[in-house]
Design a protein that fits this description.
monooxygenase activity, FAD/NAD(P)-binding domain, six-stranded mixed β-sheet, Monooxygenase, flavoprotein, alpha/beta, monooxygenase, 18 strands
Length: 394
């Protein structure tokens, strides 16, 4: 296939899709991003980036990579200077440290800030909800619910854990597995003195705990919109425990009260923070979903997956963002080889797909880590205690 004829359709303007687009743009490969959202989503979260930093440097333009600090929840935080190039796991019953997993350059990135910064200069078409994909010997076409379509050489589905591209490729096999845990994930603000105390005592990247009550609880900073006004700082909680009651199963009821009812025996900072959460905080229903990658028919090299669409995992070992960047780098490398005539599109995509599925072993590792957070007595045998946050297989 000639350089002139190669055109990539990226479905999804998340971390994997944006990184892929920048890599293609840097290498002068034609592409477009289509995203089902018509505007910014109200959901926001953080992503831990550790071993993927060198890959981001390859993919992103120099000015964007040099300004990664602007994508952090706290844009003033230099984790290296602060001696915080690590994640922190505590004993939830005592508050004592179980492990500080160190990794040079590790940082927390806020997804909304990152998407806004990385979208600049890219060709992104919003409000494009995928309805079908058709392929021919000459190319592939993405069809959308608004009646429009995009044609090109290859589609890469980077459209998240409920991927429409994955559903098209695999049908019922694309359905996520829901883990048997009650799950709450919500942002909140605190009073000035409370926010200052928490900001001082918590790890700026990841501060999580395992507890004898078979619970996981994590405290994270989401944003500091005004560095001089701690009452504006936004934190968030991730908490999981095994489903035992009908309320847990239905994810219903007064969620904050249910959480507080589980906090007996917890140490600070977790216990105090849950007590301080404003009574009117909104905690939306949520479920802990994963998807183990299964080999798919890429239709002659025309359709593939990346990021959460290819391997959805829990947050318990902090690998999802790194793997999204790794997928983007491998895909861009494959496209460069096709453009340069070193391989055919089919050969390049077959090789890429094998790598994506192999990297999907992390889904199982992260699942084991999720189980371990709820098995206090055996936590020291968990993947994060043995592997830290380095890439699997290294």
């Amino acid at each position: 296939m000639s350089d002139k004829g190669l055109h990539v359709i990226i479905v999804g303007a998340g971390l994997a899709g944006l990184a892929t687009a920048h890599g293609l743009k840097t290498n002068n490969i034609s592409h477009v991003i289509v995203d089902r959202e018509s505007g910014p989503r109200d959901r926001n979260w953080g992503v831990t980036i550790s071993w993927a930093h060198p890959l981001m440097k390859k993919l992103l333009p120099d000015d964007l990579y040099a300004n990664l600090q602007s994508c952090q929840p706290d844009i003033s935080m230099d984790t290296k200077a602060a001696g915080k190039e690590c994640i922190l796991i505590r004993d939830g019953a005592s508050g004592e440290t179980k492990i500080e997993a160190h990794f040079p350059g590790v940082r927390r990135m806020q997804i909304q800030k990152t998407k806004k910064a990385w979208a600049v200069g890219l060709n992104i078409k919003y409000g494009k909800k995928l309805s079908n994909i058709t392929t021919t010997d000459d190319g592939v076409t993405a069809h959308f619910e608004d009646g429009t379509e995009e044609s090109g050489s290859v589609i890469i589905g980077a459209d998240g854990g409920t991927s429409s591209v994955r559903k098209w490729l695999l049908g019922d096999l694309a359905t996520s597995e829901v883990l048997p845990y009650a799950f709450m994930n919500f942002p909140f603000t605190l009073k000035t003195e409370q926010a200052l105390w928490l900001d001082k005592i918590m790890n700026p990247n990841v501060d999580v705990a395992t507890h004898p009550k078979s619970m996981y609880l994590g405290l994270f900073l989401l944003d500091k919109p005004d560095l001089s006004r701690p009452e504006t700082w936004i934190f968030y909680i991730l908490v999981t425990w095994p489903i035992k009651t009908e309320e847990d199963k239905e994810n219903s009821g007064d969620r904050l009260k249910r959480l507080r009812d589980h906090m007996d025996g917890w140490a600070d900072p977790y216990k105090s923070v849950v007590e301080w959460v404003p009574h009117d905080v909104e905690i939306k229903p949520d479920w802990l979903r994963i998807w183990h990658p299964k080999p798919w028919d890429n239709h002659g090299g025309r359709v593939t997956l990346a990021g959460d669409a290819a391997h959805s995992m829990t947050f318990h070992r902090g690998q999802g963002g790194n793997l999204a960047i790794k997928d983007a780098d491998e895909f861009v490398t494959a496209m460069i080889d096709v453009r340069d005539g070193k391989t055919t599109l089919k050969e390049a995509m077959d090789k890429y797909d094998v790598g994506v599925v192999e990297r999907g072993q992390e889904v199982e590792i992260s699942k084991k880590q999720a189980l371990a957070f709820h098995d206090y007595a055996n936590f020291d045998n968990s993947p994060v205690m043995k592997m830290g946050i380095k890439a699997a297989g290294t």
